[in-house]
Design goal:
The complex is a heterodimer of chains A (523) and B (113). Chain A is mainly α. Chain A has a domain at 282-491. Chain A has helices at 2-6, 8-26, 31-59, 91-114, 121-140, 144-162, 169-200, 205-211, 217-233, 242-249, 254-276, 284-307, 311-335, 340-379, 395-408, 415-430, 432-457, 473-491, 493-509, 512-519, and strands at residues 62-65, 86-89. In chain A, helix 3 (31-59) packs antiparallel against helix 4 (91-114), helix 10 (242-249) packs antiparallel against helix 11 and helix 10 (242-249) packs across helix 13. In chain B, strands 1-2 form a two-stranded antiparallel sheet. The chains are: A mainly alpha (523), B mainly alpha (113). The interface between A and B is large, with 70 and 49 residues.
């Protein structure tokens, strides 16, 4: 058992990678064998993630060096710099790991029945495992080059999943757009890594942060390239336009996974701004850039969302808008990072709010995307103009939609309220105008979801949908897992913030343990 | 464990839920004391549309595109401006990316000087 936990950082990434290539072979034995294999392997990975989370919570940062005599030995004997591929799992990494794992588990269960009768299922599950590999690798990696590698793995798998339904023309378009913006972003990430490598001769995040004393102009150009690329991938306004095209067409279970992939890019943005650069530069300018992107995302995202009549497109714009809240909270913390008084007064809570909103949003948005696909699964359209009275025959879907809609609108006691409350109150202290905008956006969010609820679920029974039935059980279970998370996180926010969010925030604010875990012995 | 304690106050969802249940019970009690003469299936429950003929059920549903019509009409200018950049053309997305990148790098370099 100890050995399993010891090697868990590597296993969590290696197992889904192996599974991705094994699935097409196992599929030859039938769909039952494939589904059972996928569920068993992912159940085991979930167990490993839980065990690693407990370990990181109780012991602290875990360094896993590939090829070293002992995995925790970051520096080879006689070397002053880390040269091997390395995973470094701290509070923020495992926080992302938990999010990605729960969403993937729900998506996997949801997809079991959703895909029934469709072709190319083996490839679908392979891509799903590859996307999980990419996201987890990105969250765990301790060096910049592998950050690029895992970003690419996640992008390629995500694009494949977005374009999975090749019988729909817009699916191919959505997948194509995703791969184009991902490729351009990844290219600039690689260019930025090249700039950093040319200056410091190392690729380890901890080592670069250790050696970067006074950032040069080239360092700042690298920061701009990395920041721009990650904002593009996380769909921050004005670089958000690909997101509705891609999220809308991806099959049910995978839309939440592509959303989670966007937030791993947000994680990468935070890792770069806090851990890599946070110690050496005044982060006020970066903080304000993040705040401006956040406010634009909130406002333009929600105003575009309320205007949509395609249910998934509406939700995609809301994903952009909710991403704005996360950026706003963390941006405020970043802006006051160099000011200990402001950081203690409200900066830390602002980051807590922004980070807490990531996990909350992923759960309720994944739930909402699944309800939208449940409707599409049964009636074959995403157009809300053609819907009506669906709550009569799809009661579970309607209940899950209500839970998700109330959570995203910040209605207590659902999880969205707790994180939004932290953001409102801290941002109010920083700049009241920003807090007012955040509250207005929540109001429009509620109006937007009320509009869809009214047009899709209420009203008289439509003759065309008289025979519509509730979705199959596996789809209900997938939604139920997420709904349970939304309710649990809403009722026990203190438990989540103390044990999951606060360690992640601490990992962002205090970069020294992350750097010392690798470079501790180096002067 | 349940309450979220932060810099200024405490958010206790369980207390909020208890308060909600109490209010709910009070509303039900109030409702039970209301008018008892209501009869289902009579003219009392028919829709009155200023004397006009009521359309059949499936035609009475307000479509999504018609909801908040006034809101969108009054913000037409804002929406026209917001829709313009959403061309759906991937070349435009990359153009925005290049522009944002240039501005960001400029700000960061100037701020570091």
């Amino acid at each position: 058992m100890d050995s399993l936990i010891y090697h868990s950082p590597a296993l969590i990434v290696a197992l889904p990678l192996v599974a991705a290539f094994a699935i097409p072979l196992i599929s030859r034995a039938g769909y039952r064998a494939r589904n059972t294999f996928s569920l068993v392997i992912f159940g085991f990975i979930t167990f490993l993630v839980a065990a690693l989370a407990v370990d990181v919570h109780s012991v602290g940062i875990r360094v896993y060096t590939f090829g070293a005599t002992a995995a925790e030995l970051a520096l080879p004997g006689g070397y002053m710099v880390p040269v091997r591929i390395m995973f470094e799992v701290d509070g923020m990494s495992i926080f992302m790991g938990i999010i990605i794992t729960i969403v993937t588990l729900a998506a996997l269960i949801y997809s079991l029945h959703f895909l029934k009768g469709q072709t190319g299922q083996a490839r679908f599950y392979s891509l799903m495992m590859l996307l999980y590999t990419g996201m987890m690798g990105l969250a765990f990696t301790g060096d910049m080059f592998n950050l690029f590698v895992f970003l690419e793995v996640a992008s390629i798998a995500g694009a494949g999943l977005a374009a999975y339904r090749t019988n729909m023309a817009d699916a191919l378009e959505g997948g194509f757009k995703y791969i184009v913006i991902s490729a351009v972003s990844a290219l600039l990430v690689l260019f930025a890594i090249g700039i950093l490598y040319s200056q410091y001769n190392v690729l380890s995040i901890a080592a670069i942060a250790h050696y970067m004393q006074t950032p040069t102009t080239l360092d700042m150009i690298a920061l701009g390239l990395l920041g721009g690329a990650f904002v593009m991938k996380l769909a921050g306004v004005p670089l958000h336009m690909w997101a509705p095209d891609t999220y809308t067409v991806a099959p049910a279970g995978t839309t939440p996974m592509i959303l989670a992939a966007s937030y791993t890019s947000m994680y990468a943005l935070y890792r770069v701004t806090f851990t890599l650069y946070g110690r050496h530069i005044d982060t006020a300018a970066i903080g304000w850039i993040v705040i401006v992107v956040g406010v634009l995302s909130m406002f333009i995202g929600v105003m575009m969302a309320v205007h949509q009549t395609d249910i998934k497109r509406m939700m995609a714009y809301h994903a952009i808008s909710q991403g704005g809240y996360m950026l706003l909270g963390v941006g405020v913390g970043l802006a006051v990072l160099a000011n200990p008084v402001a950081l203690a007064s409200y900066g830390r809570d602002a980051i807590n709010g922004g980070v807490f909103h990531i996990i909350n949003h992923v759960f309720y948005k994944a739930l909402l995307f699944m309800t939208a696909e449940a409707i599409f699964f049964r009636i074959g359209t995403r157009d809300t103009n053609k819907m009506g009275g669906l709550a009569r025959n799809m009661k579970w879907t309607a209940v899950f939609y209500i839970i998700g809609a109330l959570a995203i609108s910040g209605i207590p006691p659902f999880n969205g309220f707790a994180s939004k409350l932290l953001i409102y109150e801290t941002v109010l202290k920083f700049n009241p105008v920003l807090a007012v905008i955040a509250m207005f956006v929540s109001l429009v969010t509620l109006a937007s979801f009320a509009k869809v609820f009214y047009s899709a679920f209420t009203g008289p029974e439509m003759p065309a949908y008289r025979e519509v039935r509730e979705v199959p059980k596996s789809m209900i279970i997938g939604m139920a897992i997420l709904a349970a998370c939304v309710i649990f996180f809403g009722i026990f926010p203190g438990l989540i913030v103390d044990n999951l969010v606060a360690p992640a925030t601490e990992a962002l604010i205090n970069q020294t343990p992350y750097i010392n875990a690798v470079m501790g012995a180096v002067p | 464990m349940s309450a979220l304690t932060y810099g200024y106050a405490v958010w206790a969802p369980i207390i909020w839920i208890i308060a909600l249940v109490v209010i709910g019970v009070m509303v039900l009690i109030w409702r039970s004391r209301g008018q008892k003469g209501y009869k289902k299936g009579t003219a009392q429950t028919d829709i009155f549309l200023s004397g006009a003929k009521v359309p059949p059920e499936e035609q009475r549903h307000v479509k999504a595109a018609n909801i908040y019509w006034g809101f969108f009409e009054s913000l037409k200018g804002l929406y026209n401006a917001m829709m313009k950049p959403h061309t759906g053309i991937v070349n435009d997305y990359i153009m925005w990316f290049v522009a944002v990148l240039a501005v960001t790098i400029l700000i960061l370099v100037l701020a570091s000087l």
